[in-house]
Amino acid sequence: MKKTLTTLALTSALVLTTAAYAGNGPRDMMGPAALLNDRVAERLALTDDQQVRISELIELHRSQYPQGDAKEAFAQKREAMDALMTEPEFDESAARALLSEDTERRLAGMKLRHDLAQVLTDGQREKLEKIRERQHKKGRNSKGRDGERRGGKPERY
Question: Taking a C-beta distance cutoff of 8 angstroms, is the pair 70, 22 a contact?
């Protein structure tokens, strides 16, 4: 029973983490690179020094954690997870290794967001939060290519 619960917990964590990296899970509508966008920089009134520092931090992060092909990476992780589930004995160390890769990447992303926030003034951080909230609401209420709502409350007819 305990082994089954551990297997279920690890599988769930892996699926949710991998889905978030593939763009299918909950995450910010605006990533750190949005600070490089001219409109965002203008709205936040970023100085030249701030823009240079932000670019340096993002480039450093990208060099340490290259994006590659997200769909391919997701497919590979999915195959590895499926292989774990089909084995007669559960390989906990292999599952932990799969999970630790995602944990390290997410930790690095959190550190990048923290470092970027330190470049901004308090007022700029508040403005950025308002922009993110507006983008989040916009994303939840928009319609997909097929005309169906992607999130938020269902439309009333």
Answer: yes
Cα separation, 91 vs 23, in Å, equals: 28
- Does residue 80 fall inside a structural domain? yes
Helix 92-119 vs helix 48-64: crossing angle, to nearest 10? 170
User: What domain count does the chain have?
Assistant: 1
Domain interval for residue 38: 2-137
- Residue 153 in domain: no
Residue 131 lies in a domain: yes
- Which burial class, exposed, middle or buried, applies to 90 when counting CB atoms under 10 A from its CB (0-12, 13-18, 19+)? middle
Residue 145 placed within a domain: no
Give the DSSP letter string of 26-68.
S--SS-GGGGGSHHHHHHHT--HHHHHHHHHHHHHHHHHS---
Across 124-132, average pLDDT? 91
- Measured over all CA atoms, what is the biggest interatomic distance in the chain, rounded to whole angstroms? 59
The segment with the largest mean pLDDT, out of 42-46, 98-102, 103-107, is: 42-46
- Sorted by sequence, the CB contacts under 8 Å of residue 35 that are 6+ apart come out as 41, 44, 46, 54, 58, 116, 128
Helix or strand holding residue 82 (H, E): helix 70-86
